[in-house]
Automatic annotation (TrEMBL):
This is choline-phosphate cytidylyltransferase. It comes from Eleginops maclovinus. Residues 1-28, 313-371 are annotated as: Disordered. Residues 238-265 form a coiled coil. Its EC number is 2.7.7.15.
Length: 371
């Protein structure tokens, strides 16, 4: 009943999605659809826990009917099997393709047990319970078959009412057969899917083996014991020593990076400082030349001051046209200060016959010039 209610819920959700798609078909071209999260609330049920199917005759659906779309009460039952060890996106993409093969699909996934897997393929990382649980939580899975057979028999196909088997088209050689899906392909029940390149369980295990030391050291740092990791005492000490050396290397690398950043900042600041110095020096030199240069302001100031000084100390020039003798005013008579008016003038010396008295006037000078 739980499986039927979950299938009804899926169908009703699909109808709502189809109706909303029809209503907003024109709006999608212009406006983006708002994001919404719709997911299942419960993991996929296991086949052995479901109620038995009603006793109706098992009639397969052909490819044309499946592609055209079947009745909601009769979905196309697609089966996909595998080991699904270390479940990854490649597994999920393969199951998504199987789920989307037909419009109305009920996806059944078979997971092989540990005994069967170890016998035909090898040791697994995850045990069977972990692999069953991982598949049941995949959103594309509707039903999980535990302890699935390695080769599909007609009885198994009829028991689970399987219409098609989904797998990649590459021949899968195992259990003494060139292709374990050969009889499925001959019966027209095979539906091919595409493998996801670049990821597989073998690739993931190869990465772990390649970086074994790194993962062991990481788990030792996280608290796992050497016994849990199957590491010897000597290797444990070696990994601890390597971890310490790596810590020192990381510290040295951090110091180098910080020193490089510091040197870079100092260089940038020094370049800025030098540029400022150059600008200030150019400005200082320009101001100095403007003040003390050959044609600077100081020279003009000195010239102007010199001219004013020369003009101040030089006598005034006489006018070009001097007045005549008659127009002149009588010159005042000057006397020496040590002679008085009553004292007679001294007699001239004998060797100066043309000497005059000490009474001097400007008129006498003019007369002498005329004689």
């Amino acid at each position: 009943m739980e499986a039927q209610s979950s299938s009804d819920m899926l169908l009703s959700r699909k109808r709502r999605r189809e109706s909303s798609t029809r209503d907003t078909e024109e709006a999608e071209r212009l406006v983006k659809i708002p994001r919404c999260t719709v997911g299942l609330k419960h993991p996929a049920p296991f086949a052995d826990e479901l109620e038995p199917v009603t006793k109706k005759p098992y009639v397969r659906v052909n490819m044309e009917e499946a592609k055209r779309g079947t009745h909601p009460d009769r979905p196309v039952r697609v089966y996909a099997d595998g080991i699904f060890d270390v479940f990854h996106s490649g597994h999920a993409r393969a199951l998504m393709q199987a789920k989307c093969l037909f419009p109305n699909t009920h996806l059944i996934v078979g997971v092989c047990s540990d005994d069967l897997t170890h016998k035909y393929k090898g040791f697994t990382v995850m045990n069977e319970d972990e692999r069953y649980d991982a598949i049941s939580h995949c959103r594309y899975v509707d039903e999980v078959v535990r302890n699935a057979p390695w080769t599909l028999t007609p009885e198994f196909l009829a028991k689970h009412r399987i219409d098609f088997v989904a797998h990649d088209d590459i021949p899968y050689s195992s259990a003494g057969s060139d292709d374990v899906y050969k009889h499925i392909k001959e019966a027209g029940m095979f539906a091919p899917t595409q493998r996801t390149e670049g990821i597989s369980t073998s690739d993931i295990i190869t990465r772990i083996v390649r970086d074994y030391d790194v993962y062991v050291r990481r788990n030792l740092q996280r608290g796992y014991t050497a016994k849990e990791l199957n590491v010897s005492f000597i290797n444990e000490k070696k990994y601890h020593l390597q971890e310490r050396v790596d810590k020192v290397k990381r510290k040295v690398r951090d110091v180098e990076e910080k020193s490089k950043e510091f040197v870079q900042k100092v260089e940038e600041k020094s370049i800025d400082l030098i540029q400022k110095w150059e600008e200030k020096s150019r400005e200082f030199i320009g101001n100095f030349l403007q003040m003390f240069g050959p044609e600077g302001a100081l020279k003009h100031m000195l010239k102007e001051g010199k001219g004013r000084m020369l003009q101040a100390i030089s006598p005034r020039q006489s006018p070009n046209s001097s007045p005549s003798r008659e127009e002149r005013s009588p010159s005042p008579t000057f006397r020496l200060p040590f002679f008085t008016k009553t004292s007679p003038p001294p007699s001239p010396p004998p060797h100066h016959s043309g000497a005059r008295g000490y009474l001097v006037s400007e008129d006498d000078d003019d007369e002498d010039d005329e004689s």
